């Protein structure tokens, strides 16, 4: 027994696991993912994973083995995927090791991957959630959010894909899903209908989603606000295509579900266009970081995905998928990824340098927007024509919505039941964001004429789970969706910044607010 233990400790040391003076694993200094990967490798080497004689019960509890075996077998049978025996056994062993570690109180740690890497895994979140629920019910073992992310990684690494047998499922949901894809294709101006994986993935999500919502069951997307902030264009377009799906299925889709659907469309879009991924490094504070983010992002193609990263944590990230690093400070370490240094408030010359570099990465400029710099002409027009109610004294979300919808009705800009539709949307998921803004909206078919409104408040009011000082009210008519889609995305880009919200809330005139949003310098 002692000899076996010493052999395991030696194996762990060789794998890079920290061992204490008492000859036990130092879980404080060793990533949990490395510990589990090392155990899996050791088990593969010593219990014959990859052949029919593999005996999991020598290591794991029989109930765990039975559950994992049934789950993996059923999934592959239903999906008709045909992995090799090695892949099947490796997946089983990885899941068993995870459950065993969690049962002993060891959970996966915070992810060190960029968001644009994480959303690829999130395509498998529903499969991971199904597995998690089964483990909780059958084995009395609960996973954390980080455990769920790790399960997504395991599934992705073993070739698992969301899948349903389309021939045996609801024809109505199939037709609705195809129409959903067609509507999104129109808005993004790319043919997404040729992507069979998109159809499979969407259908695999939408069919159980319909059941969940009909039964009043809701789920949370842990990356909801990140997706709304960093993929604002795709999120906005998805939001405005949802009403047709809702009508066809007789449901109301929550914002959490919408962000899950956004993931599928974003991944499909990135297959068609050559998306670039950029890290922004700015250590001088959240406000400056967000200002840098907004200024650079508004001057770049929408196929460039930016992510703000703490300079202290940069070395922890895998940079294989990062095309460019933009930093306001000299980086101590050397990186293979190209680096451009800029001021905290970048000059026009520095922004031009960034755009030239991005163009050299991809000479074929496939974007949502028609030019390198998003055209703000339409945004200026709608802001000047829009309503602004400054420093208002409201005490509740309902009073704000009643006030603004009544204004719209007086001008015959919306249909009579517009307030009811807006309130129904709020019940599904409050539209308040942690930045301090609420962005309520409704089905475009209830809007007669497009008009946006901005309300600033004397005092914060509670909007769902957050406090807000600014309300951006979007009433977009169906016939204007293609024209104004980029304008809406630009508005989201501005209004997800806490510093910009604070600044907007302090303005005393409409021109000051317009200048703040458009970015005009004083």
From TrEMBL:
One Pfam short name: PTS_EIIA_2
PTS EIIA type-2 domain ranges (all copies): 381-521
SUPFAM superfamilies assigned: Phoshotransferase/anion transport protein, PTS system IIB component-like, PTS-regulatory domain, PRD
Record keywords, A-Z: Repeat, Transcription, Transcription regulation, Transferase
InterPro entries referenced in this protein's UniProt entry, alphabetically: BglG_antiterminators, PRD, PRD_sf, PTrfase/Anion_transptr, PTS_EIIA_type-2_dom, PTS_EIIB-like_sf, PTS_EIIB_2
Any one GO MF annotation of this record: protein-N(PI)-phosphohistidine-sugar phosphotransferase activity
Domain PRD: from-to ranges: 59-165, 168-275
Membrane-spanning intervals of the chain: none
BP terms from Gene Ontology: phosphoenolpyruvate-dependent sugar phosphotransferase system; regulation of DNA-templated transcription
Annotated protein name in UniProt: Transcriptional regulator ManR
Organism: Enterococcus hirae (strain ATCC 9790 / DSM 20160 / JCM 8729 / LMG 6399 / NBRC 3181 / NCIMB 6459 / NCDO 1258 / NCTC 12367 / WDCM 00089 / R)
Record lineage: Bacteria, Bacillati, Bacillota, Bacilli, Lactobacillales
